Amino acid sequence: MADNDVTRIAGNIGAMNALYALTNINKQLSIHQTRLATGRRINSAADDPAGLAISTKMMSRSEGLKVALSNIGDAKNLLAVAESGLGRLTDILNSMRMITENAANDTNGTEERAIVKEQLLSYANQINDIVAQTKWSDKKLIGGNYNDLANALTFQTGADYGETTKLYGLADMQASALGLLNDAVQATSATISQSSIGTVYTASAVAASGTEAATGTSYTVTTTISGNSTDGYTYSSQLSLAGQAVGSAVTGTYSASAGATINFGNGISVALATGQVGTDPVAASIVGTSVVGTGMTVDLSGTGTSGVALVDGSYTVSYTISAGGTSVTATLLDSLGAAYGSSVTVAYDGTTAGATIDFGNSLEITLGTGIAANATGVSDSFVFDDGAGTDAVRTSGAFSYTHSVAASAAGVNMALSGLNGTVAVSNADDFAAYMKKIDDAMVLVNSQLSKIGSLTGSLTFKEDQVSSSQINIEASYNRIMNANMAEEQVNASKLMILQQTSTAMLAQANAAPQFLLSLFK
């Protein structure tokens, strides 16, 4: 503070010093009074910028841990619901085992055992009811919906991303899944995956007149159409599954203008389009020109009984003139140059007639005149067409067939190894086997209870840890953010006294220059 010179009255330095002190005291007093009023040490960012940032982050984490604690509590309640449902299943299975064990005794007759089976059916249906009702919100807990990791229940048990606990491995506890009940089945018709199975086929599912086809994904149909336009056409159609024939081929009449519907009698029927025929037979012929060399021609005017019958293909003829020039020996050769049948020898007139050679299979070759003795040669190649008609072969694309399902009522999953007259009934061995199924079901239920108990215990440990973390973070936040009320009250009391003394001193400082007036008397 500045030194006070009371002889200089134009500037009242003493009063100004007192005013400065009073102003500072008022500012400090205001801060402490605000803290006492709000209970907070930090009431604005200016009070403690770093402390405000730290405490805000701590508050966020503390609140997150509070939510995690609530989530853990909800998760334990959910598990308690599942545990309750499994406990009821244990009670029912115990009751089922007792009456089944009794029915396994041959002191019971057919009527008594039928009554027991009705009771077992009722118990099994009650198991299904409990499974359906054991749920949390819309989540059925013991119906097999959460049996693997991909479908696990996820609990957010921590404040941060990824701090979760997963619940899975909850098996399906329905009576059918436990092997105790055969569910009711609604009848369904057989279906085919698509009607169009290629450019010339359509398929449909029809009533089976014999054994129905098995469900499969790679059925095909191959049809061979034989005949001609004069005599008519027939078909032979074979159904296959994955390349293996299914049943025998189906035959019938095919109309080039109306097509054909082919019913395999096993629920599969196909329609074959019109116009799917081969070619009609025509007369055999030499393709192209019949001239096969100088002075050489071939035709089909020979006899056709003694030689090897011709087949479609390319041929040549080799010949040799005898030493005297009076005969010729000719051999028919196939496309590889091998002899096709036996050689033929005939007289040769080299001057006026030449020679005509008949190979005994309708083929004749004519040699011109002027061929010298001992001469050899080979004709040009020529092609024989037998003119036979061709069959049409049509193969469908692959298609799927799904077997029909017959309706059946729900019932106890127990064998019928005994006989009551001609009626199949369950005997003592069947009830004993069913008792084993109940034992297996009880083992599964117990393992599920153990799993739920283990997770509940794990969540309890997690709850203790999260609770401890939340309390300690809250304590740290409290120390940074909230005011020490006792300390603030002491400071406020001190400043209030100083406020009064500063005010008094300011009054005195304002009055001090007045003593100078005595100098003017």
Describe the secondary structure blueprint for this structure:
Layout (H helix, E strand, L loop, with lengths): L12 H26 L10 H55 L6 H24 L1 E2 L2 E2 L2 E4 L6 E4 L7 E4 L2 E3 L8 E2 L8 E2 L8 E5 L10 E13 L3 E10 L2 E2 L4 E5 L5 E4 L4 E5 L12 E3 L3 E3 L2 E4 L13 E9 L5 E7 L10 E4 L7 E4 L5 E4 L8 E3 L3 E4 L6 E4 L3 E4 L8 E2 L5 E3 L2 E3 L2 H54 L3 H27 L10
Antiparallel strand pairs: 1-2, 3-6, 4-5, 7-28, 8-27, 9-15, 10-11, 10-26, 10-27, 11-12, 11-13, 14-15, 16-25, 17-18, 18-23, 19-20, 19-24, 19-25, 20-21, 22-23, 29-30
- Unreliable stretches (pLDDT < 50, length at least 5) are none
CATH class of the largest domain: Mainly Alpha
Quote the average pLDDT. 89
Report strand %. Answer: 15-25%
Distance between the termini: 33 Å
- Whole-number radius of gyration? 55 Å
**CATH-assigned homologous superfamily of the largest domain:** f41 fragment of flagellin, N-terminal domain
CATH topology of the largest domain: f41 fragment of flagellin, N-terminal domain
Number of helices: 5
Shape: elongated
Helix content: 25-40%
CATH architecture of the largest domain: Up-down Bundle
Quickly give the structural class: alpha+beta
The domain count comes to: 3
Largest pleated sheet: 7 strands, antiparallel
Care to count the β-strands? 30
